[in-house]
Design brief:
The chain is mostly beta strands and 450 residues long. The protein contains five helices and 27 strands.
């Protein structure tokens, strides 16, 4: 098929295409306010994400949105309602949901000192204000969402509270805090909505689901009350660019957004770069991300790293001074939102990330475990997320006309390999060229995917 014929195919597909982008789930079907004549609250027209407006009467915007609540449906409230003692807000839920409140961390702390932006993690005190929040059963999720009042950075923080609610109407009440900002409201299905796509406890003593850079460096061992995956020696592997040597990838599982949890144990003595790693967004040996949990942070340790046809570079916006490794097992969680590019890493404490980053270069890929050049063990691996559909190159989710345009731009390219990211992903089937075999896969998956 020449390029002219391919163009005709794409035009015909476009003519008969329907919009495959799934609308945001509707949890909040309406809001009814009483006790105010200020600007009326409205349900936002798009899901919660970075830099979206918070309020109907201010230019404030949400920033540093935690991935766990990204894409929730939310309400734009009126900040001028914050001082009204008779304020009530009925939130009408079309289906069961997790209802969220974003409450200014300064609530109840009338003698506070310092800039509000420094109050991350200092949660509201409801003993004198907003006592209805705990009375209704809302609980602290343990993390904050940032608010930018126009400075281009976090101006103040709000704690995120949640409550599982059934379909119907729930009434929220006054804030009555003149020197604070009005609380926000949102609803979503919760992280449990992502299905389990892979799990490994290694009790079957099998490594068939894994693809290492050097199989001789990995084995199943007895430890941790059962069997574990062990990286017991260095791998005989030379990466194309400066990046980890010891990589073990899950076979045949490709995800975009996900939550990955596991138990990890380092088996080497203490030194500054003592490490274990998690790999994700893995396209090939020259295009992937990895988390380096290093004992002491520096330019090449304890960060979120990107390998993009060059030596690895740190892309973390935030990271701690190091990972407190010892001779004990530790629980690690990695959260990835492919839509926003947000990456969060948690070490033992699931409420406060030890690393954060934003990057959307590789929206999908494989996941794996390993180390830069150390040894360690892994157990109880759980992966929840969205499986990637071959041909779904670009957002929105699903193989649609946008993906066909991307495919057409690389039609008949040859020499598809890791240096060009398999012809920018368009080479879906061997051999290493973009041809009819790849088009057949694309057509088979058209209008499929999340």
């Amino acid at each position: 098929m020449d390029s002219t014929k391919l163009t005709i195919v794409l035009i015909l597909v476009g003519v008969f295409a329907i919009d495959s982008a799934a609308p945001a789930a509707e949890f909040i079907s309406g809001v009814v306010r009483r006790g105010s004549s200020n600007a009326a609250p409205v349900i936002a027209g798009q899901p919660l994400a970075e830099n979206l407006p918070c309020m109907v009467d201010r230019t404030h915007r949400y920033i540093e949105v935690p991935m766990a609540i990204a894409r929730a449906q939310y309400v734009m409230v009126a900040n001028n309602d914050k001082t009204l003692a008779g304020y009530e807000l009925d939130v009408i839920l079309a289906q069961d949901a997790v209802l969220l409140l974003f409450i200014d961390n300064r609530v109840g702390h009338n003698g506070m000192t310092g800039a509000p932006a420094d109050w991350a993690g200092i949660h509201p005190d409801f003993s004198t204000e907003m006592s209805w929040v705990p009375a209704l059963g809302f609980i602290d999720m343990g993390f904050d969402i940032g608010i930018d009042e126009g400075a281009g950075r976090v101006t103040y923080w709000s704690s995120v509270f949640c409550k599982q609610v059934s379909a119907g109407t729930i009434t929220l009440y006054q804030m009555n805090a003149a020197n604070r900002n009005m609380y926000g409201v949102a609803a979503f299905a919760g992280p449990a909505a992502w299905p389990s796509v892979f799990a490994a406890d290694f009790e079957d003593a099998s490594l068939i689901a894994w693809q290492p850079t050097d199989a001789s460096a990995w084995r199943i061992e007895d430890a941790h009350g059962g069997k574990v995956l062990s990286l017991f020696k260095g791998s005989s592997y030379s990466p194309p660019y400066r990046s980890p040597f010891n990589i073990n990838l899950v076979r045949d599982v490709v995800v975009d957004s996900f939550i990955l949890e596991m138990e990890m144990l380092t088996t080497v003595a203490s030194y500054n770069h003592r490490d274990l790693c998690i790999f994700f967004g893995y396209q090939d040996a020259a295009h992937f991300y990895y988390i380096h949990l290093g004992q002491t942070a520096d330019a090449t340790a304890n960060s979120v790293f990107l390998v993009d046809n060059a030596d690895r570079v740190s892309i973390a916006r935030y990271r701690t001074s190091g990972t407190p490794w010892d001779d004990q097992w530790h629980r690690v969680r990695l959260m990835r939102d492919a839509d926003t590019g947000r990456i969060e890493v948690y070490f033992d404490d699931r409420t406060t990330p030890v690393m954060t980053a934003y990057d959307d270069r590789f929206r999908w890929g494989r996941i794996g475990v390993g180390s830069f050049d150390d040894r360690g063990r892994f157990d109880d691996i759980q992966l929840h997320g969205r499986l990637w559909t071959p041909g779904d190159f670009l957002t929105p989710h699903g193989v649609d006309l946008v993906d066909f345009r991307h495919f057409a731009a690389h039609w008949l390219e040859t020499n598809c390999d890791w240096p060009n990211n398999n012809c920018h992903g368009a080479n879906l089937v061997a051999p290493a060229s973009v041809n009819l075999l790849d088009l057949q896969v694309l057509l088979a998956n058209y209008l499929s995917g999340d």
